Amino acid sequence: MENIVIGSGPAGRLGSLELGKLEKEVLLIEKKHIAGTCLNEGCMVVCALTDVCKYLDSTNRFNAHGFIKSQVEFSYSKLVEKIKETQEIMRYINQKENESVNNQIIYGEAELIDDLVYVNGESYSYDNLLISTGARPFIPDIPGKEYGLTNQDILNIDDVPEKLNIIGSGIIACEIANIYSQLGSEVKIFARSKFLKEIDSDMREYIKEKLLQKVSILENIDVLEVGKNKVITHDNEYEGVPFFATGRTPNSEIVEDVVKLNSNKTIKVNSFMQTNIDNIYAAGDVIGGHTMTPVARMEGITAARNMAGYLNKIDYNCIPQSISLNMEVGFVKDEKNSNDLVDITVPGTGGPGAFWNVLTGDTGITKMSFDEKENKIGKITSISPSSTDDISYLSYLMRIDEDLDKFDEFLEVHPSTDANYKIIKSMWL
Predict the structure, then answer these.
(1) pTM, entire model
(2) Which one, of 260, 288, 301, 257, lies nearest residue 130 by Cα?
(3) In what order do the strands lie in the sheet with 186-190?
(4) How many angstroms separate the CA atoms of 142 and 151, rounded?
(5) How far apart are CA 51 and CA 113, in angstroms?
(6) Residues 193 and 373 sit within 8 Å (Cβ to Cβ)
(7) What element of type H or E holds 339?
(8) Which of 271, 291, 387 is nearest to 332 (CA)?
(9) For the chain, which ranges sit under pLDDT 50?
(10) pLDDT (tens digit per residue) in 275-302
């Protein structure tokens, strides 16, 4: 076999597709479901649930304003049923897409032994191998850890928990807290240090005060033990189902005796996505770093092109990120910019998705940091209905090193909640 890809998440699926487009022979091996964590346990599940939360939030607002009177009946089991139904459709589409470029797909657990890949009792040799086996939830080694839920359990619980205790302080903890607090749970977050420490402090406070109003956030607190319906800290015991959002651990066991690993068990690769073995590549969450779907896709495509003989490198600067809440959060930072930056903050505008928020004063907020010397953007965080799209195009301008004068040629779509163009055009050009 010319190319074998193990794992069909964003990295493996897009890597396989790229190889197929380049008319290379490909065998894609998937242990369980095509499309990996994103579709089956992660991003898409969060998006589906958040869509429902946005609807419930809007309905409550309209009821409060008095021009709509409605009562929503909600079924968690029916919601889960429809998510699973949608996943089946998307898996079918993803499989057909890969097969459309003549790729072969096998479902089964792969093993790597003596330069051969074994799956379902068959062995396959390869010219090039791509390991894209992803990652799984990291669960801290504390008493009672077996009682804790993770993102893998969201579609397997019977109903919305009455009380939910989320252990973790990052983006996943934030998104899960928003979902279940909107669906009716009494939610607490237990952060070992600071909640959302990767987010600008002003924006973090906005998220806590405006978007997670129903959530109790406990910072600088260690969870010592959990039970089936409790969380125990150094000074208290809290009733509620424990939920671990404490990071990810790589599924690198398949090659742990074959290629070099980093100290955290992620696979060590160079900028070509190549391991220390010339014909073995790795991409996606299994190599750590920016464990996000767009980055995994980029890594998978980069690996595929190198496997096909078209040398290219990857650049991780100015990676846009997001948090899926009732109002989207997008942010990006130029890690290479070490100059002093000037901050400008403006409130969000009352465009689509935020018009009715004007009445309650929570239309969002945008903060941009500028490098006056270089006339360039250094950092942005935006909370608005359009923030993820806004941050995407601005991160592209940052990556290609464009200066702010280019915004003379930028014409925004109206109506919009994009506050970035207002800052740049009104204050800097």
Answers:
(1) 0.95
(2) 301
(3) 215-218, 186-190, 163-167, 241-244
(4) 18
(5) 45
(6) no
(7) none
(8) 387
(9) 429
(10) 999 999 999 999 999 999 999 999 999 9
